[in-house]
Amino acid sequence: DSGVTQTPKHLITATGQRVTLRCSPRSGDLSVYWYQQSLDQGLQFLIQYYNGEERAKGNILERFSAQQFPDLHSELNLSSLELGDSALYFCASSVGQGAYEQYFGPGTRLTVT
Amino acid sequence: KNEVEQSPQNLTAQEGEFITINCSYSVGISALHWLQQHPGGGIVSLFMLSSGKKKHGRLIATINIQEKHSSLHITASHPRDSAVYICAVRRGSQGNLIFGKGTKLSVKP
């Protein structure tokens, strides 16, 4: 158990809908990273937050947004969902922003039908 | 060309064999990570390296910064080692990881 929690575990929704994925980092970790793992693209970095502020952006679509709250949990919002958004979404946390160990949550499996 | 390349893509071994998985990268990095992903999907961090060698139990990870190459070794492999092993690099001061496509390892009893 990494200490990082993600909810829900599984999510099945229809095209065009909007969903929110939630992540709680390990106690004491200030950085949260969101990653997407799809069959064709593998693991890709989406976005990073550090202590409530956005720090880095990767291949995140405009239909996706995220935020980190004062209690350090983070939410990833996915809207106008398409079939191609079906993937495993992982969050990871680390104590700082740079070269620190990252601890991964169990992931949320999103299926868009 | 991917910034992080792993080989082999797939590997089948007999229990007890010594296993090596390779990772090459084409960018400057501040750290390299080896991750393990089990069939259930969860990802576990095995090592974070910026130089030299690290050992944890039957796992050994090495990195050669000049050659931009890292290896993950598993000694006395066991069926429970069956998983996908993923190499990931961190560039500069950025925290986010760039991933290889993974090596699927199957260890037969």
Poorly predicted runs of chain B: none
State the assembly state of the protein chains.
Answer: heterodimer
> Which two chains share the most extensive interface?
A-B, 29 and 24 residues
Structural class of chain B: mainly beta
Structural class of chain A: mainly beta
Instruction: Estimate the global geometry of chain B from the Cα principal axes.
Output: globular
- Please count the helical segments of chain A: 0
Secondary structure: helix percent of chain B: under 10%
Give the overall pLDDT of chain B as a whole number: 93
Number of strands of chain A: 11
> SSE string of chain B, helix = H, strand = E?
EEEEEEEEEEE
Major sheet of chain A, described briefly? 7 strands, mixed
Please summarize the sheet with the most strands of chain B.
6 strands, mixed
Question: Whole-Å distance between the termini of chain A?
Answer: 31 Å
Q: In one word, what is the shape of chain A?
A: globular
- Provide the low-confidence segments of chain A as ranges: none
Compute the gyration radius of chain B: what is it?
A: 13 Å
Number of strands of chain B: 11
Write down the overall mean pLDDT of chain A: 94
Question: How much strand of chain B?
Answer: over 45%
Helix content of chain A: under 10%
Structure description:
- The complex is a heterodimer of chains A (113) and B (109).
- Chain A is mainly beta.
- In chain A, 0% of the residues lie in helices and 53% in strands.
- Chain A has strands spanning 5-7, 10-13, 19-24, 31-38, 42-50, 53-57, 64-68, 74-78, 87-94, 103-104, 108-112.
- The model of chain A has no long low-confidence stretch (mean pLDDT 94).
- With 109 residues, chain B is an all-beta fold.
- Chain B contains no helices and eleven strands.
- In chain B, the strands form two sheets. In chain B, strands 2, 4, 5, 9, 10 and 11 form a six-stranded mixed sheet that branches. In chain B, strands 1-3-8-7-6 form a five-stranded antiparallel sheet, with no helix packed on it.
- Chain A binds chain B through residues 2, 31, 33, 35, 42-45, 48, 50, 55-56, 58, 88, 90, 92, 94, 96-104, 106-107, 109, and chain B through 30-31, 33, 35, 41-45, 48, 50, 86, 88, 90, 93-102.
